[in-house]
Amino acid sequence: MKILLNNDDLNEALKSVSNLGFVPTMGSLHKGHISLIKHSKKACAKTIVSIFVNPNQFNNKRDYIRYPRNHKKDLSILKKLKVNFVFMPNKRDIYNSKRIIKIAKKDKILCAKYRKGHFEGVIDVMDRLTNLINPRKIFMGEKDFQQLYLVRNYLKNRSKSKIISCKTIRDNYNLALSSRNLLLNNKELNIARKVSNNLINFKRYIINKKNINKLISLKINELNNLTDIKVEYLELRNKFTLGKTFKTKNSKIFIAYYIKKIRLIDNF
Ligand code: AMP
After folding, report:
1. Which of 117, 123, 127, 159 is in Cβ range 3.0-4.6 Å of 155 for a Cys bridge?
2. What is the pTM of this model?
């Protein structure tokens, strides 16, 4: 496994590599990331994983500072998985030119509505990383469904790299794995698991129901009444267009909520 710490290392290492799979991450790796890496190893001749906590996608500075970082453990996981390359650039390597990314008004929904500048930062870093690495395929998780949707749309006409979406990996209690779960204590983890199970059942319950709008607002109230929870949004949207819908066919329930100060997202 080659550890690449800057763009020169990267260019040198990738000189004669084709059929490269790329798994972008912010580190603190868990089984969700590992599943993306396994998909890449299966589909591509070589796999590169990036670890870069992108400051520009944090709309809240404290969130950026507090974001969990575990490089030593990450490297040992990646070594065991026999990943070919790990790219761990610093800010200078990524942000060597200035530009402004804008997302369309129609896309300012869900997290884009509440985390100002977040997806602009995500799209910017994904475009920069993709240009530097030039992979054949990029593996991204459905856990961050809106991110996948926006990055795929942005890169579609700008890059030859193909985005491959991978299913959300959950723990034994249905909670989606996330680096942010490390910030939760046991009691909070159990609350998050309760929310996941509740929404999995809710998604089944609303199939063919006529008053979905009403059921969703009742569900928001119910969740807000659980201890330490504040729902930011809970919405049913079409999974191809992300347009609002009141039909369960081809739809997903999207949630963002806080447990105390920790913000979690998921979709079902
Ligand atoms: P992050 O390190 O949180 O930026 O995530 C890096 C990639 O891993 C993104 O494409 C995420 O969608 C994906 N990912 C994170 N959590 C999961 C999960 N539980 N299951 C599948 N993919 C995930």
Report:
1. 159
2. 0.97
